[in-house]
Design brief:
With 189 residues, this protein is α+β, with helices and mostly antiparallel strands. Helix content is 24%, strand content 39%. It has 4 helices and 9 strands, in the order βαββαββαβαβββ. A 5-stranded antiparallel sheet has the order 2-6-5-4-7, with helices on both faces.
């Protein structure tokens, strides 16, 4: 586990992170189509599915949050398939989830309950890029171009990550604070 920054507060969220091979596939498939000056995308290897954004929390509360999250160890590991493309207005381009949406919704609710957070509307997705400068028409054309690419990759969600987000001039960087494993899927016969 990488060390947490030495600030008194941490900007945190909870997420499922695809394995490196899936992350590389996303980058290979969509990276060349994303204008780095007009769109801000996660740094290499930092794609994730956000389950809950905790915001700034005092460093001293992190152990208590981790303790509350231990209830999620009872969650059965499950499969997630990333497929499809969409957008939130002209702000965010995202990849959809075609398998695992029900489990992600349940996990979002269980996470919120464990931390006494209000359960919010949840849309399972992986953020591919955020709009910096594209006009509406160019943004729409970019989403359409990305949608023409085939991507249908599955991975097993084996646990949830408590992540620290650090804002930098070139975008956010993420570091894992802790990993809460799920129960393993039974071996198939």
């Amino acid at each position: 586990m990488p060390p947490l920054t030495q600030q008194n507060t941490l900007r945190t969220f909870l997420a499922i992170t695809p394995p490196p091979l899936i992350q590389a596939g996303i980058e290979h498939t969509y990276g060349p189509l994303l204008d780095p000056f007009a769109l801000k995308r996660p740094q290499k290897g930092q794609f994730h599915i956000t389950l809950a954004f905790l915001g700034k929390i005092p460093r001293k509360k992190v152990p208590g949050i981790i303790k509350k999250l231990q209830v999620l160890r009872e969650t059965q590991a499950f499969n997630i398939t990333l497929q499809g493309m969409g957008a939130f207005s002209t702000r965010v381009i995202w990849m959809g989830v075609s398998q695992g949406t029900e489990e992600l919704h349940a996990l979002h609710e269980n996470t919120c309950r464990a931390l006494n957070l209000r359960v919010k509307k949840f849309h399972a997705h992986l953020t591919l890029a955020r709009n910096r400068h594209l006009a509406q028409k160019a943004f729409k054309e970019t989403v359409e171009r990305l949608s023409e690419k085939e991507f249908n990759q599955a991975f097993q969600a084996k646990g949830i990550n408590l992540m620290e987000s650090t804002l930098t001039p070139t975008g956010s960087t993420y570091a894992e604070c802790t990993f809460i494993p799920f129960k393993e899927l039974p071996a198939e016969c």
